[in-house]
Design brief:
Distance between the termini: 51 Å
Largest sheet: none
Helix content: over 70%
Radius of gyration: 32 Å
Mean pLDDT: 75
Shape: extended
Number of helices: 24
């Protein structure tokens, strides 16, 4: 029912908003005696239609059709009031609608004045986020319309290519940034391409040949970052070198977004193609972004970013460099995270070196303040015992840890499930005491798990098989296990 919806809308207004709405409604209606105004003052979420009607019209019997009509009219007024409220708060929206109003009116001087005001407003935006690029897209599209309507040859019915040449470098930079934003955010999501993403990509791929790229050292970099996100550009190392030299020509906010737009395709392509060159370049981008403070949040390094860098270097078998990275960037972590994450990732480096004694010392001696890291440490301790080949007392400990994990209230459900799966994998290894058990376990891993992630487990299966056969074969598992456990 319309009245039910309008009563919910009104009841969700704050006291001040309701007062402002009633004042605005009285102004629109010209009087406080109008029946819609009286209806609005009486409608409440908990009231029945009959109660509202009786309070509004005490001398008239309940009229359901008229009641519904009043509800519809009041909803239209309320929606208009809400739209005005949003409109007044959003400067970009106001400039966009002013350009929409002026676009078909062919007043060049006034139009240019409003364009310059909207440009100055957008340049003051602190963040280049979806809201920013949506405003840029709409305003740039309106400027294209204006040029088309007021500069097309007589009889021309479609946008002709020469119009694009009237765009200056400012427009080209914005369109390139928009194209990068849409491509970078859509990467790997499998979502339908939005119309604005299609328009920006079409524009970027059909730039007029007359554009003089030599006049702007930054535009070619933008175009290559766009193509990198599109998957049509491969020389990411050369692109990063050029960006290092010219990043200060961009505003800090744009440069920070561009760092993300170089990093994202590196990680995406590594995850899909397992080419370690992409991962190595991704680490370089992270280090550059941190050193130039583009990847810091209010001056602090997010612990997950430091974890990603350390684990990437462990995966690349650069364990000493991983320890160096940890020491180098520890001071950039916020005070509440610094010591916890430093010790946690130091244990990861110990695992990667097959130095399980060092890992156990960390887990036994250091008291993690973070409850999630504390629970992870309890789980990983069992893997360190397994690495030392202390398996005889592990089965009861594994069951005990599984019980602790499943009842750990501060953990999210995905975190609990992940820890249980880790412990179940360890239990399956410990319980496999015959060649037949190991064969069945290997078949299960190969058929149901991502083999590249469970390579440490396959190595251990082979190691245990060799041990049962009486052969002593060293099968270090630390590096592969560390990237799996600590990810």
């Amino acid at each position: 029912m319309k009245t039910r919806k309008v009563s919910k809308l009104i009841s969700n207004l704050t006291r001040q908003e309701r007062k402002n709405f009633l004042e605005w409604l009285a102004f629109e209606l010209g009087t406080t005696d109008h029946r819609i105004y009286v209806f609005a003052t009486n409608i409440k979420r908990t009231s029945t239609p009959e109660q509202v009607w009786k309070t509004t019209f005490p001398d008239r019997p309940f009229d359901d059709p008229d009641f519904r009509k009043l509800g519809t009219l009041l909803q239209e007024f309320l929606e208009e009031f809400m739209a005005i409220k949003v409109f007044r708060k959003d400067e970009n929206l106001r400039y966009t609608y002013m350009l929409k109003f002026l676009t078909p009116r062919a007043d060049d001087n006034l139009y240019i004045k409003e364009v310059n005001k909207s440009k100055a407003r957008l340049d003051r935006e602190a963040y280049r986020d979806a809201k920013y690029y949506q405003a840029v897209f709409e305003q740039q599209s309106l400027q294209m319309q204006f040029l088309y309507l007021n500069n097309q040859p007589e009889g021309q019915t479609a946008l002709h290519p020469e119009m694009l040449e009237s765009y200056n470098l400012y427009h080209l930079h914005h369109w390139a940034e928009m194209a990068i934003f849409f491509e970078s955010n859509a990467m790997g999501l499998g979502i339908e391409t939005r119309p604005e993403a299609f328009m920006t990509s079409t524009f970027m791929e059909n730039l007029p040949e007359s554009v003089d790229f030599a006049t702007s050292p930054t535009l070619p970099i933008l175009l290559d970052i766009y193509r990198l996100n599109k998957g049509t550009f491969k020389d990411v190392e050369g692109l990063l070198a050029r960006f290092r030299q010219s990043h200060r020509l961009f505003s800090p906010y744009t440069a920070a977004n561009l760092v993300h737009s170089i990093l994202n395709p590196c990680l995406y392509r590594y995850n899909h193609h397992r080419d370690e060159n992409w991962l190595r370049t991704g680490v370089e981008v992270m280090e550059f972004g941190i050193d130039e403070e583009y990847l810091l949040q209010r001056g602090d390094l997010h612990p997950n970013l430091l974890r990603a860098m350390v684990l990437a270097k462990i995966h690349l078998n650069e364990i000493d460099q991983a320890r160096g990275t940890l020491s180098r960037y520890k001071t950039l972590l916020s005070e509440q995270h610094a010591e916890d994450y430093y010790m946690f990732l130091l244990a990861a480096c110990a695992f990667a070196s097959d130095n399980y004694a060092e890992a156990l010392d960390i887990y036994r001696d250091y008291k993690f303040a973070d409850p999630e890291l504390r629970m992870d440490a309890r789980v990983f301790t069992l893997f360190a015992y397994y690495g030392q080949e202390n398996e005889e007392f592990l089965p009861p400990l594994i069951e005990q840890r599984i019980a602790q994990v499943t009842t750990h209230e501060s953990s999210s459900e995905p975190m609990r499930e992940r820890r249980v799966k880790l412990l179940e994998k360890l239990r399956s290894l410990v319980n496999a005491t015959t060649v037949e058990d190991l064969d069945a376990l290997e078949t299960y891993v190969r058929e149901n798990c991502a083999v590249d992630r469970y390579e440490w487990m396959l190595r251990q299966i082979d190691h245990r098989r060799q041990s049962i056969a009486g052969k002593s074969v060293s099968q270090p598992m630390g590096r592969k296990l560390a990237t799996w456990l600590f990810a």
